[in-house]
Amino acid sequence: MSGRSIEQVQHCTTMADVRREIDALDDILVPLLVQRTGYMTQAARIKQADTEVRDEARIQAIVDRVRDRALAQGGQPDVLEAIYRGVMEASIAYEHREFVRLRAGHASDAAAQTAGSAA
Ligand SMILES: O=C(O)C(=O)C[C@]1(C(=O)O)C=C[C@@H](O)C=C1
Question: Separation of 40 CA from ligand 1 center, angstroms?
Answer without folding.
Answer: 7
